[in-house]
Amino acid sequence: MASFDQTSTKARRPGGFLRPRNLVPAAFLLLFALAPQTLRDDYYLQVLIMILFSAYMASAWNLVCGYAGQLSLGHAALVGIGGYVSTLIFIDLHLTPWIGMFAGAGVAVVVGVAIGYPCFRLRGPYFALTTIALAEVLRIWVENTDKVFGVEIKAAMGLLIPLRGDAPLLFQFTDKAHYYYVILVMLLIVVYVTHRMQESKVGFYLAAIRSDQDAAEAIGINATKFKLIAIALSAFFTALGGSYYAQLFLYVNPGRILGIDLSVEMALTAIVGGQATVFGPVLGAFLLTPAAEFTRAVFGGRYAGVHLILYGLVLVLAIYYMPKGINGLLGRWYCRFIDRLEERTSASTMESASEVKHGHS
Amino acid sequence: MSPEILLSAAVDGLLIGGMYGAVAVGLSLIFGVLRVINFAHGSMLMIGMFLVYWLWVLFGLNPYLSAVVAAPVLFLLGFCLQNYVISPLFRRERSGVVEPLSVLLVTVGVGLILDNGALLFFGADTRSISLPFASETLNLGAVILNWSRVLAFATSVAMTGALYLLLAKTEMGRAIRAVSQHRDAAALCGLNVYRIFAITFGLGAATLGVAASFLMPFYYVQPTVGSVFGIKSFIVVVLGGIGSIPGALLGGMIIGLIESVGGQFVTATSAAIFSFLVFIVVLLVRPKGLFGKLEA
Amino acid sequence: MAILELKGVTKKFGGLVAVKALDLKVQEGEIVGLIGPNGAGKTTAFNLIACAMRPTDGEILFQGTDLVGMRPFDACELGVGRTFQVVKPFGEMSVLHNVTAAAFLRHSHRAAAEGHARELLEFAGFTHRAGRNAGDLPVADRKRLELVRALATDPKLLLLDEVMAGFNHREIDDMLVLIRRVRAMGITILLVEHVMKAVMNLCDRVALLHHGEKIAEGTPRQIATDERAIKAYLGEEYGVATS
């Protein structure tokens, strides 16, 4: 599958767990775990949080759009559902967002499947246009609605989440580092889920579907069913991300959380990073989000959308020069790097040269 | 709700709808001939509108006359966009190197660059042109019409008609139609397919130049205008039928009508929901739209 | 009971009748050939049996169950496997993964599916290509992959659509061997083929289609000497050569 992922069931190599291929990622993990302790400035921690958040959202998007091959430019609708549901449950039912977020995820799954079922048969660009239309309908409706079934959603003004100070059980922290760890764990979970899915029957089926749907059906694959599985998965994680966003900023409003800008950013990050790969969206986030922060810092608040020029440029360049995304480019280097490390560390054993079948399966 | 107000709204909607149609007609052409979903369509209109605005502010050029400048400039913009940015991707797609949908994504990128470039250089302020006669009205009994809108509608119809005739009667039009029906067969007949692509794209963009010059007298411009018109154009094209020139005009008028009449019952911004719903329903139920030859 | 029975199957595309009242019986374990000039309706018949299309009229009974109205993946689940005339490999995936994907129909776990896939690649003499990207394969290998992939779904009936098109003699012989080995596994085969050498050597029975209708049916020998067959398709020379 993707070149970054060391897949296929090979015979277990002797040497156990402590091989470069496991140690290098572990080192990265350690780096991320320790980051908040070493970063002195709260600003950099905030940037890192936004990078991880962007990586998480792009990964959630990737679950259906990359893997099932259906380009969605309306995922913000699912983000907004997550954010609004968990917030409303907190404000009106006084239930902690830790529970509310799963309710939001549940709603999003239902909505996602309900939309996917009739719309998946639309071909690529038309599906994309439909997702834009649906997300815009939701946004416009929320923006113009003060109350629905007696519940206040305050239209364009948005909802402020009541401050509770440092209240971990209510998903509010005064120390930014805690927000960091939450999103780090969420990201690890979604990356792991993506990896497991990719290597499983679902992953294979989705790969077949996006390669050639007719051929996939001829080998027994119910394309619609598996695309719905993908969108259910994606909607679930996307909505959780929306709830996180709400708790991070303690504010939700339709313009941002249901806006097309957010949808496009999620899509872009995953595409530039590498669709249908486990780490593509993460790489995309690490490229684009710091760039966005940097342009924001340089151009100040006066020019709100300037980082989008950068995004647009990166997108065009990526389509041209990196059709498989950053992951396609870096994946090979990474594999070769790991191979070389492993050759050096087990140069004495015979196994080193023989069964190495890597990545490009 | 008095019938006069409703009637006024309806007529107004039809007039501005004609304008939507004029804006969408270029998209329908590009869509129909190149099968390219041009997400930068609205952005190009916005550029055209800024061009008309600056010609007015800097040179005092009457917007109606600046069509003569705007159309060729936008033709060039479209031509170059197709020739240097999109066609190379077509070539790559043929050899299977590039994913499908990459052209769509590239136009998304171009749209982002244009929209936010305009934001950077022109700022977020709304600009508009006020011409003395433009606010004068034409009274037809119970219905009061704004002259500039009437003119815009008339131009829309004229331009759509001209485009239709160009496609139906001229040599170039025939070539374009041939390419839209079967690119390889057209190439085998000796047509320079890539050049025709570029010309078609340029033509689609040029219509935006004309539309821009007739929109400015009664509309306004700011960088976000692009996405508003862009999305509306897609709705209109799908409703009217991809590749159908008269369909685009009619589709535009229907959308304009829906929004204007709808806007009497709900807020103006909410009325946009109706158009989106129509769009979704058409795509799911009758993808060909009203007059479309191509399947969505 | 015949494993496959077509009763009065008709398919119209607007005014065009692609398949007209086709009656066909295939017994278990047979290799039946469908021949005929281009446009005779052979691939359409395949599409109908594999449920890629719905017949305008008629019944398609597979092991007694009417397939009409089912979707392709349902038919596959019941045991109908097929290849496509214009091959459809999963280009971005390796040969092994192509076959593994198909194996997942009967084996839910990755290890089992991949194991089954490897066995089949071994069976088809294809193991040396396991790691290659399907999109990089030459045509003969792609057709072989298409067949192995269909086999991975454990079909009881295999529909082979021009699986030897464009092959040279060596490749044809290799494929003949493979197909015979598939039959030896107990799989019934229905094949569309233009390569007469293959049809005559392989098939127990042959049906000739022309303009959507079956105009002759019998053993290869019978067909080769049948006046109508010679006139419609085989040509004088070939008819004479085998008699």
Describe the structure.
- The complex is a heterotrimer of chains A (361), B (296) and C (243).
- With 361 residues, chain A is mostly helical.
- Chain A has one domain.
- In chain A, the strands form 2 sheets. In chain A, strands 1-2 form a two-stranded antiparallel sheet. In chain A, strands 3-4 form a two-stranded antiparallel sheet.
- In chain B, a hairpin with a 2-residue loop joins strand 1 and strand 2.
- A 6-stranded mixed sheet of chain C has the order 6-7-8-3-9-10, sandwiched between helices.
- In chain C, helix 3 packs parallel to helix 5.
- Chain C starts with a strand and ends with a helix.
- Chain C contains 10 helices and 10 strands.
- Chain C has a single domain, classed as 3-Layer(aba) Sandwich (Rossmann fold).
- The interface between A and B is large, with 40 and 45 residues.
Shape of chain A: globular
Instruction: Name the structural class of chain C.
Output: alpha/beta
Number of helices of chain A: 14
Low-confidence stretches of chain A: 1-12, 357-361
Number of strands of chain A: 4
Provide the domain count of chain C. 1
Instruction: Report the sheet-strand fraction of chain C.
Output: 15-25%
Helix-residue proportion of chain C: 25-40%
- The average pLDDT of chain A is 86
Number of domains of chain A: 1
By secondary-structure content and strand pairing, the structural class of chain A works out as mainly alpha
Largest interface: A-B, 40 and 45 residues
- Measured between the Cα atoms of the first and last residue of chain C, the distance is 33 Å
Query: What is the helix fraction of residues of chain A, given as a range?
Result: 55-70%
- The CATH homologous superfamily of chain C is named P-loop containing nucleotide triphosphate hydrolases
Number of DSSP strands of chain C? Answer: 10
The CATH topology of chain C turns out to be Rossmann fold
